Amino acid sequence: MNLSRRVVNFVNIGHAFDHMLMLIFPTAVLTMDQAFGLPYGELLALSIGGFISFGLFSIPAGWLGDRWSRHKMMTIFFFGIGSATMLTGLAQAPWQIAVGLTAMGLFAAIYHPVGGALLVANVEKMGRDLGINGVWGNMGVALAALITGGLAQWLGWRAAFFVPGLAALIAGVFWLIMVPNRPSAGKAAAKKAVDVPRDVVIRAFVVLSLVTIAGGITFNAGTVSLPKLFEEQLHFGSLSTFGIGLTAALVYIFGAMAQLIIGNIIDRLPLRSVFVPVAALQAPCFFLAGWAVGWPLLGFAAGIMFALFGQVTINDAMIARYTTDSWRARAFSIRYVMSFTASALAVPLISFLHTRTGNFEAVYTVLAVLGVFIFLGSLAFPHRPEEIAPAPAQAAAE
């Protein structure tokens, strides 16, 4: 296996850990009310700092990746997020949970700008490999619900932080052993400017910015609220914490398949022709999921996750095609700081509206409105032949 392939494999593994560790708390919180004496809404609010730092620190992480070392930043990612996760499992008070989750978000912020740039610089087929990388990330989302549900139920909520945190540390050790800190010999992204007019690039980034902000809220709110939504509205008898986690995991896995499908389509079709139908799926599925119960809820939830996860691959492809390699980590960091900073609004949104109404109808109605804005953004994305940028791996190779 050549160095480029090893880089891609570890970047994929890092994506799984990034999302898995950041989504431990939304499932673990279902078993933590007795330990801390706080209701669901107040406990969930402790994660706000983590999601803010997840977005805010993407900018310095991307800058350090471009100007210092992407390899060293990935090393810090593995060891930092693993240690912070394990320390969160030692918390004795709510404020310690909040500090631990914030530290997890800080190290998690490294992954997307740095990992995204490493991936694009080492791929063979951009759309396909972005899709595969997305599946790894979404498997992390699924594993968060499944593993956390099982560990919290059988070993307690602390084990739900200890075990995945230790696994991330072990992955960091193998990263250092198997991926030396030197330039890879495989495919590299083009270092010259993309061959499209400047005004088209600006328009693409304006659309991406608006979609990223709205999508950050819908993605985080959808993934964070799903376990609680299933607990309240599935009506499948008395589901255990593990049963809820397993059900959510299956829906996440279904959504992950969108990234394989869409990633392969992106290599063959213009981005806008893929973007529009995926964006159109979000608003109706969100609205109907807020009111549905039982089996219909599972169908609408699957539609939501298919659209949300597919949108991530499309957005990453926008960055890959409309930036050069020397700026790519910073471009990814700008996208993700917007996405994850906006996503931090999801937690107070869920907490406030769920506490006020006692259900998810209002929450999912707001998310449906944001889905409409995402669809309108897709219609404005560049699509004429002279506006379409080539994929990096197709534009040039080293």
Reconstruct the topology from this structure.
Layout: H1 3-22, H2 24-28, H3 33-36, H4 40-44, H5 48-56, H6 58-67, H7 70-88, H8 94-108, H9 111-122, H10 126-154, H11 157-178, H12 198-233, H13 241-266, H14 271-289, H15 294-322, H16 325-343, H17 346-357, H18 361-379, H19 392-395
Helix pairs in contact: 1-7, 1-8, 1-9, 1-10, 1-11, 5-8, 5-16, 6-7, 6-9, 6-16, 7-8, 7-9, 7-11, 9-16, 10-11, 10-13, 10-15, 12-13, 12-15, 12-16, 12-17, 12-18, 13-15, 14-15, 14-18
Cα distance, first to last residue?
18 Å
Q: Unreliable runs, pLDDT <50, ≥5 residues?
A: 184-193, 393-398
Please work out how many helical segments DSSP would assign: 19
Number of strands: 0
- Give the percentage of residues in beta strands: under 5%
Q: Report the major sheet.
A: none
CATH architecture: Up-down Bundle
> Shape from CA axes?
globular
How many domains would you count in the coordinates? 1
**Class per helix and strand makeup:** mainly alpha
Q: Would you list the SSEs in sequence order as H and E?
A: HHHHHHHHHHHHHHHHHHH
Radius of gyration, taken over Cα atoms and rounded to an integer in Å: 20 Å
CATH superfamily: MFS general substrate transporter like domains
> What share of the residues lie within helices?
over 70%
CATH level 3 topology: Growth Hormone, Chain: A
Average pLDDT metric: 84
The CATH class turns out to be: Mainly Alpha
